[in-house]
Give the backbone structure.
Amino acid sequence: MRRAALRLCTTLGKGLRAPGRGLTQGSENPEKQRVLHMHEACSPIHVNHVRDKLREIVGVSTNWRDHVKAMEERKLLQSFLAQSQKGLPPRRMKDSYIEVLLPLGSQPELREKYLTVQNTIRFGRILEDLDSLGVLICYMHTKIHSAKASPLSIVTALVDKIDMCKTSLSPEQDIKFSGHVSWVGKTSMEVKMQMFQLHGNEFCPVLDATFVMVARDSENQGPAFVNPLILESPEEEELFRQGELNKGRRVAFSSTSLLKMAPSAEERTTIHEMFLSTLDPKTISFQSRVLPPHAVWMEDSKLKSLEICHPQERNIFNRIFGGFLMRKAYELGWATACNFGGSRPFVVAVDDIMFQKPVEVGSLLFLSSQVCFTRDNYIQVRVHSEVASLANKQHMTTNVFHFTFMSEKEVPLVFPRTYGESMLYLDGQRHFNSMSAPANLRKDYLVEP
């Protein structure tokens, strides 16, 4: 499936680079080719072309003091919303295809933002870039030429999957992102994105990402219809079919959630065997528990952090930027895996990040991370995110993040003490088993926080 996506993007991208020119040099017609420089997106001083393009499409101000007025003006765009999907012109996959350049090699001054102390690339920054790109891709798909600004509010609903490929990541080589809409429902869109890095004269694949975005009305209050998709080749038909399967898989995974249904017989046996292995053989008691060799209690694997959500981290709709939330959750998850395994962990996969509730500017963001499953040198980390306003101390869950890391050496087993922790263990096991295939990546092929 990943190969089909790469073949399609290669086809969609034909002509996007002028022959004989280096990709970092751009093309003779950059507007036509939609090649944007990602590095300005999150610069603390300059406005990124991607983020700037999003503000232009939505028609909002870069000045925090003007945000209320800008949101009021968006109410006038309600008349441009379609009353049904049939009233919208169909679009092709290549209509939303975009390439974005991160010229770390040709513009060395950009590296510090993406650099770790080990001279690798910060994956948290990549998550921010992917989130911005996913939104822009959807705006390209739903573009309304007659409207000065888009009447749609497009937000990230779900990070379905991010899988790493066998490609080295150097902070001294240019990076390219590409992506397009691969599936649409009535109000939602699936976006396929790839990341490549320059090696010699060729861009080699680094990761594949699948995001699900939803369209809402101009005030971000209710759902809005999106343009249907025209399929022009067998590869595109396969991508669309995979999108349907992904939707069905998510529904099935949700319906069997341990928050709704009891564990399977095999899972119950696993938990019971783990429980028996922790009973103290010197006593005849269910209360006396001891750890097996090379094991850690789950409750001892936790780390927590607190963030104050400042206006600087807001998105184009004056909520906290989803990419910022992902970066903070990832960095805490990485620290948790590092602290647990005793060596540098490397990200292998990210999956099932559901954005359940928007985070308002000024909120207190509480992040809690813990190891919930291990196997060999793999560490499955779950990060729980909740917010509380300064006026209201009630905490509300906004996100749950799932990260799979690989350590440089074999890590301890993690054992649950309580029934709740046992459910976390089984949930972590399910997410670990949902990886496309166990990764076998060398440490120089991977990225850090």
Summary: The chain has a mean pLDDT of 81. The longest helix spans residues 234-255. The chain is about 30% helix and 25% strand. The radius of gyration is 23 Å.
